[in-house]
Amino acid sequence: MSEARSEYKLKNPPDDAISSVRFAPKTSYVLIVSSWDSYVRLYDVLGNTVRTKYTHNQSPVLDTLMTEANRVFSGALDGTIISCDITGDQKYTVGQHEDAVRCLEFSEDKNIIASGSWDRLVKLWDARSLGPIGVHSQQDQVYTMSVKDEMLIVGTSSRKIIVWDLRNMSQPFQQRDSLLKYQTRCVRIFPNKQGYVLSSIEGRVAVEYFDSNPEVQKKKYAFKCHRIKEQGMECIYPVNAISFHFSHSTFATGGADGFVNVWDGFNKKRLCQFHRYPTGISSLAFSNCGSVLAIGCSYLGELDETPQPALEDCIFIRNVTDQETKPK
């Protein structure tokens, strides 16, 4: 029986921290989830069931994605990249980094998988043949990436933002320092490719633009968020996740404070805030049509003392409305 409520929790969640939630392309009912329990799970969110899962050789999985060809890719702490054909449940080792694979991105336009690693490299792979295409140094550890068509953006451990054009990887298209003073946590490209949204561990989000024209650069800004006043003190939380609504170009942020906010970045407005979730938000994903938001909740060690009893790792599916996500 399918779920019809505005929000519900998925059954059979991962047994350890959730590292990534992503919808399969062009669906709002197939969700791919990676976890530190070494598994990748594929959920049918309408039926609230686990359709299939596979293990990543007992290594924590830090990111996953799915292409239109029913092929799932995942990257793990041990540096391996695995591809699984979910129709035949066949696994292949695509390649290896010398350190953890922190993030994976797929360019449907170029049919390329990009893997970013703590070994300071981005590697490119052919999504069909699974063969290697190129290896590109990023100067520092790769913490986050985003792809839109031919555009690849990389956020590194030293707060560098490196922009690449997948059509010509001989040198970066742009390099700049983050507008934010503290460690980069997540970056996502605008749906129209004019700029990107960036978050940090210090409760801030920046909106920046690629065009170097001074008039365009005047539009960039940063703002505070995911901060809570408790007992007369302001507690500042990392902003772990960003996800764009592809139709409205608004975006959601998820923080270690357990809140999800939806923002109109162009008009500098917060559109709404959902209720507080049981623990921090580790990952967010709008479905392609924008009607569903997947919310991964996990404690990621951001507090001085580990909560006791241990906080539950869980995934919420929220059916969102235009009132919550459309610019006003």
TrEMBL record:
SMART domains: WD40. The keyword Ribosomal protein does not apply. Gene3D superfamilies: YVTN repeat-like/Quinoprotein amine dehydrogenase. WD repeats lie at residues 94-129, 239-264. Keywords: Repeat, WD repeat. It holds the Pfam family WD40. The keyword Repeat applies. This is Mitotic checkpoint protein BUB3. It comes from Orchesella cincta.
